[in-house]
Write a structure and sequence with these properties.
With 260 residues, the chain is mostly beta strands. The chain is 6% helix and 35% strand. Among the domains are: 41 residues, no CATH class; 114 residues, Galactose-binding domain-like (Jelly Rolls, Sandwich), CATH 2.60.120.
Length: 260
């Protein structure tokens, strides 16, 4: 395939046979879009070249060869389709064939879409259909805090007392277990214990305790299974001390998603 172009293919005094051969060569170069393993010499602005080494169609800008089409893969070149070149609202569901947008195309890491590939404030609630809400299978333990309160001290004596209550909404199958972490103490350290637990829909977590006179963090060993719940439910943090001589104190609590 010819890549040679003779500009002065005809002039008076030329040998006719040579001029005809040059013209024929020029047509061959045009016919093949100057196909070759290396760029044509002395290109002119607007000239097309089929780079057969990489199977790319390129155009000469006057200073460099720019890729305009990936012939081998029948697609636009990878560095050509960028956000700025896509008109708003032009990419619709109908234009995206099933499974054509794959993980490698959106920067998936080993555990999903990489944080750096999600622009801040770009995912809105309206973009997430209820049937596709993120569920426990996509969430690491403690990835979601359902409720948290701190620096609000409450106290209890003798009986179980609800010190904090708050509504939580669950969707069937979208959550698994929830656990709680408390910061609690007893008014007298030693033999006297402060106990705390979580209650949701009449079900209790494990009861955790401390006999510390200063605030200590304790976590429920077993959580509450909420996988079958659907709707809004009242959650309660409850506090208790077994001794009428002491008081139980709590100053902070968190309720978190936990995978089984």
């Amino acid at each position: 395939m010819s890549q040679t172009w003779t500009t002065d293919s005809y002039a008076s005094g030329h040998v006719g046979q040579t001029d005809l051969a040059n013209m024929e060569n020029n047509f061959a170069a045009l016919r093949s879009t100057f196909a070759g393993t290396s760029a044509p010499s002395s290109p002119t602005q607007g000239q097309i070249w089929h780079d057969t080494t990489n199977d790319l169609l390129k155009i000469y800008t006057g200073s460099l060869w720019r890729v305009v089409w990936d012939i081998g893969n029948n697609r636009a070149p990878e560095d050509l389709v960028v956000t700025a070149s896509i008109k708003d609202l032009n990419v619709t569901t109908a234009k995206i064939a099933a499974r054509n947008v794959t993980g490698p195309k959106i920067g998936l890491g080993a555990n999903g879409v990489l944080n750096e590939n999600i622009k801040d404030a770009t995912i809105e609630l309206a973009k997430m259909a209820t049937t596709f809400l993120i569920d426990h299978a996509q969430m690491a333990n403690y990835a979601a805090t359902l409720f948290s309160i701190s620096d609000v001290e409450k106290t209890a004596t003798d009986l179980w007392v609800t010190v904090y209550s708050f509504p939580l909404r669950f969707v069937t199958g979208k959550s698994d277990l929830v656990r709680a972490i408390f910061r609690i103490r007893n008014s007298l350290a030693g033999a006297h214990y402060t106990q705390a637990r979580l209650k949701i829909n009449g079900v209790y977590s494990s009861t955790e305790q401390t006999n510390s006179g200063t605030y200590a963090l304790v976590e429920t060993a077993t959580g509450i299974d909420v996988s079958a719940l659907n709707g809004a439910y009242l959650a309660e943090i409850q506090l208790y001390t077994a001794s009428g001589l002491t008081s139980a104190y709590i100053i902070a609590a968190s309720v978190l998603n936990y995978n089984s």
